[in-house]
Write a structure and sequence with these properties.
alpha+beta, globular, 12 strands, two-stranded antiparallel sheet, about 25% helix
Length: about 230
C-alpha cells in the first residue's frame, strides 16, 4: 500500500498491484486489459491447470493456481432456467443495496461512486460484506462492465481498482477481486453461466474463510436462479 495525504492524517487508498484509472478512458482501457484474462479463465482446461474442487447442488466448481498468489481462481458452471437475462442484468446494475441483498445476505453496504459517461453499464461501485466473528468486515471497490458479443454471449467483467476519492475505511479491510461471468443462451431457453472469481481477502484471514470464498461462486449462481428464474 501507499500512504498519501497530510502527515498528521495519512489516508490509505491504494494497492500498488491494482490499476488506478483517473478518468473514463483509463477505466475503459482497464476493462479491455482484463477481458482476455477472464476469457482465458472461462475457457481454460485441465491442461491449463484447472482442477476439480467440488459439486454444489448441481454447480460444478473448479480451481486454478496462479503465479504470485496463494489464493486460487475459482470457476463455477451451472444452468439458469426461466431467467430473463436482460431484465436480470438491468435489475442488478440499477438496483441498490436491497437488490443486492436478494442474492447476497452478507452485503451490508453498496453504492455507485462513478458511472462512465455514455455507458451506464460501466461503473465503479463500493461494497462491503460482513464476515465471521473475529474477522474484519471486507470492502471492495470495483469497476464493472457488460460486454455483449456477436455470438449472443453476454460477458460481465469486474475488476478491483484504486480511486483516491474512495480511501480505505479504518474499520474494514479492502479486499480485491477479479471476476467475470459469461451468460450463454441455450436453444431450449435455458442460460448456461460460467463464473470465474479470484478474491483476495487481504489482511490476516483464517484458512476456513479463504475456503469459504471458494464456495461463493457456486452460491452466486444458485441465488441468481432463486431470485431471477424459475426452478
Amino acid at each position: 500500500r501507499r500512504l498519501v495525504g497530510a502527515e498528521d492524517a495519512p489516508v490509505e487508498w491504494k494497492y500498488d498491484d491494482l490499476p488506478s484509472p483517473t478518468n473514463d478512458e483509463e477505466m475503459k482501457q482497464t476493462i479491455q486489459n482484463e477481458i482476455q484474462i477472464r476469457k482465458q479463465w472461462i475457457n481454460g482446461t485441465e491442461s491449463d491447470g484447472w482442477a476439480f474442487y467440488q459439486d454444489v447442488e448441481g454447480i460444478h466448481v473448479e480451481e486454478l493456481a496462479i503465479p504470485g498468489s496463494s489464493v486460487h481462481v475459482v470457476r463455477a458452471t451451472g444452468i439458469l432456467k426461466g431467467v430473463d437475462l436482460e431484465a436480470m442484468l438491468t435489475s442488478f446494475s440499477s438496483g441498490g443495496l436491497k437488490e443486492r441483498q436478494k442474492v447476497n445476505t452478507e452485503i451490508i453496504d453498496h453504492k455507485k461512486v462513478h458511472t462512465v459517461e455514455g455507458d451506464p453499464e460501466m461503473y465503479v461501485s463500493y461494497s462491503a460484506f460482513s464476515t465471521p466473528m473475529g474477522v474484519s468486515n471486507r470492502e471492495f471497490l470495483t469497476l464493472r462492465d457488460v460486454i455483449r458479443e456477436e455470438n449472443g454471449h453476454v460477458l460481465v467483467v469486474s475488476q478491483s481498482i484504486n480511486l483516491e476519492s474512495v480511501p480505505f475505511r479504518q474499520d474494514r479491510v479492502r479486499a480485491t477481486t477479479r471476476n467475470g461471468r459469461v451468460f450463454v443462451p441455450q436453444e431450449n431457453g435455458d442460460i448456461k453461466v460460467i463464473l470465474v472469481d479470484h478474491v483476495d481477502p487481504r489482511g490476516r484471514v483464517p484458512g476456513f474463510v479463504v475456503n469459504m470464498f471458494k464456495k461463493k461462486a457456486a452460491e452466486a449462481i444458485l441465488k441468481l436462479q432463486k431470485h431471477y428464474g424459475k426452478n
